[in-house]
Amino acid sequence: DPGAAHQRTGSCTSMGARQEPAAGNHHRGSGKAVRNRVAKKVARQAAQTLQTQGRLSLSRACRLLGISRQAFYQQRSRNEVRALRLAPVRHLVQEKRQLMPRLGTRKLHYLLAPELKTRGLKLGRDALFDYLRGEHLLVQPRKCYTKTTNSKHWLRKHPNRTEGLELTRPEQLWVADITYVTTKENTAYLSLITDAYSRKIVGHFVSDSLATEGVACALKTALKQRKANLPLIHHSDRGIQYCAAPYQEVLQSGNVLCSMTQGGDCYQNALAERINGILKDEFLLTPCPDLQSLRTVVAQSIHIYNTQRPHLSLHYKTPNFIHEKSLEAISNQGSKNNLKTVNLF
């Protein structure tokens, strides 16, 4: 699940050199044992299929596949007991996915862990993954693309001021982007402003066009919520909406420094692209009837994203939690900031 604002980094563990056992038989034996277990599982599944389809009796299917009927029934009994024990898990998963339909396994495991512990259910992340796969509850990737950026224009393009930037607080860097969202009537455009440190969406606006006014509305919303009187950078692509005079005037009135990607490198605004993907792939799954209903759904989705969806890059905390706690720390400490430094990408 990425799932990731400042950075979209994965978790990476550095492992030092370890002395290998004197002989490799232990590892080969372990690998062989795993292969044997998998082979037996496949054989039992095949026997069940052959019997269910009426092609062979269970006894003949077991003999053909090299397993005993006793082992088959013992495993089936264990599976039934396990399915009964894990029955509440399906309900818990469906409950979480009512709000976040495409929430990934790692985030689900984190959110479900307290409830599972209360119920006395021991279920690790990999076991949950296997369970979801068996219940056909894994989310499938979605891919689609519509161009929303027009950078071939004569307006001034600003330099990229995010290279080498260390993020130490909220309201240090905002990233902006536009993405399309379809309704049953037409195509709408969602403008987002995201705080790179906390991953919180601080401003948004849904428009029926790519006009600068809609994009500027998202920025104005973000500026109204701004709390810290500290230097702030606004980073976006080189789209004509962001370069236009009305948008630049809003930035200047808020004393915000403008930064833009160079050339057509989308990775220079990777966080904004990632947030677009989260909203569209996890929340905005069904086309709304019209623009007004879409605006309502987007507002609800952003609220859930900010307040309930855990982020791997935030150590499973929510954007709103990190944003508010960090700003509170800044307020209490004055200019001395002891917040954790994070990477942008």
UniProtKB/TrEMBL annotation:
Q: Matching Gene3D superfamilies, A to Z?
A: Ribonuclease H-like superfamily/Ribonuclease H (3.30.420.10)
The record's Gene Ontology biological-process terms are:
DNA integration
Read off the InterPro entries from this record.
Answer: Integrase_cat-core, RNaseH-like_sf, RNaseH_sf, Transpos_IS3, Transposase_IS3/IS150/IS904
Q: Which GO terms describe its molecular function?
A: nucleic acid binding
Q: Where is this region: Disordered?
A: 1-33
Q: Which domain of life is it from?
A: Bacteria
- Give residue ranges for domain Integrase catalytic: 166-327
The record's NCBIfam families line, in alphabetical order, gives: transpos_IS3 (NF033516)
Sorted alphabetically, which PANTHER family does this protein's record hold? INTEGRASE PROTEIN, TRANSPOSASE INSF FOR INSERTION SEQUENCE IS3B-RELATED
State the protein's name: IS3 family transposase
What species is given as this protein's source?
A: Flaviaesturariibacter aridisoli
